[in-house]
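Problem 3 from the worked examples.
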Amino acid sequence: MSPNNCDGVVWVLDNGGGSIKSCMVNRGGEGTPDKPPDILHTPNSMVRAPKSSDVLVGRDVLSLRDVSGLTFRRPVDRGCVTSWDLQQEIWDHVFHQRMPNFQAPLSTRDAFLVVTEPPGNPLHCRAAMDALVFEEFQFQGYVAVIPQKLVAIHEHREIAVVLDVGFSFANAVPLFPPTKVNGELRTPLNCTKRLNLGGKALTNFLKETISFQTWNLMDDYLLVNAIKERLCYTALDFRKELADVKRNPDSIRKMYVLPDGTALPPSDPLGRIRDDELAENHESSEQLLPLCNERLLVPELLFEPGDIGIMQCGVAELLVQAVSAAPKQFHSRLWANVIVVGGSTLFPRFIERLNRELRPLVPAEYDVNIYQSTNPIEAAARGGYNLALSDNFREMVVTKREYDEHGTCIGGGNFLSLLESPDEFFPPNGSEQASRINYYASFEKLEQGSMFLNSHVGARHCHDRGLIVQNLEDGGETGPKVRSL
């Protein structure tokens, strides 16, 4: 197989903080965009059971029958990979497991890779991923792209704003063609806004609330996460519904049967919701967890993160800030194409509440249309599948030969995919390869003292990372300034 034609097997990894969504596609084979892929979910963690020296990695975690007291090690913290050794071990587990529609695991040396990275991924994380992909797994080539771009590909929308409420954080990314505004290049990356609150924080909040009021479940993350997903819902009018619950707590009260190893069937190690019709005949040995206003308090944090001391705006205001940062000529189409993805958007009535919150904040001349992907958790992986089969894949891939010749400075797949190769940066009178190198080299003309000037790796990231002018903590402007060239 020649790396120039990029035909062959392509791995697709949506490297989330909680789980990795993966699939394989054979370019030039039977895979077509019309045929949905089989997505495999792998926990992105290493788990050790109490009183045991055995360590479980990846999908081996799903075989546990007792989920109490587990100790987790995760390679991703706050959206960025912080332990590449652990991430390599989990990826190795993913690449060596049997995939649907493939008879046996295939060597990564003969394959290509599409992998996601968060918007504003730090410089050292990209350099470490380049080394892992090319030096450890020996891929023929790969593309790193933000998952929100893949979501837009999956939904067949070129201009849209994607609200992604994931495991570690939530962000709003407006997708539009890079445009100059008052002489400054405005790209989707420097319009991205982030909320440091995700599904993990919601589960921890519920875990602390339950442990303070009833059962001590501080060491039972998987159990509390299942309770959150099965019982919590979004209040359309939070204050009104909370007052109604105070007057009549039984209106929303639910009983959850905790696993005890004997009362539950083997197929349900995470407990179950007790059937109200059988409540009078329940077994006395069942351990019951009552849930009342906790059911609506947890999702409310996405709209009011200040309730737990996170001094940031909610997801509705986050969308408004992201769209407002985009060029004004795209506002109408952005508001008409709001795509919502992420596991934490699956709470019942979340879309209705988001629409209620957005409408007063958006100018009346704009129509607000909110779409939720058919499978919000797998949307990015399915978009990566479509990307791997597209004709543009060949132009976006950074091959191992390029990496060996030029080092990390050639690996700009994320930014190149968003930039869509405008003539300003890739002159038509030169070869694509030469234009790429000249493009990255040109951004060495930065102000002295920039932390990005220490290596050729910095030259690659100066433009796209330097133009991410938001601070992930408070939304302020940070980072080096790029001179006009």
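Problem 4, a separate protein:
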Amino acid sequence: MSNSRFCQLKQYGGPSKLHVTNIGKPSIVGDDEILIRIKAASINSADWRIMRADPFLIRLMFGLRSPSKLPKGGIGADIAGVVEATSSN
């Protein structure tokens, strides 16, 4: 695995607001982590609602003007892939 891509949401809106960034190879830093080579990813209805800020209450949870309070991994937790490496636990 040489480089990875990270899909980031910087503004509320449709798919055109998603930005793909190339990042270096991820590493395992904790005792309870795994490294997965992702083969497929999807966006579920919760992710779609966060992207669109619909209902408006989403903005109170993740940021009024932009989704600045998203979790570190962003949106899109539905993945399929192969385990590349595991930590000690």
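Solution to problem 4. The longest strand covers residues 34-42. The helical segments are 45-52, 57-62.
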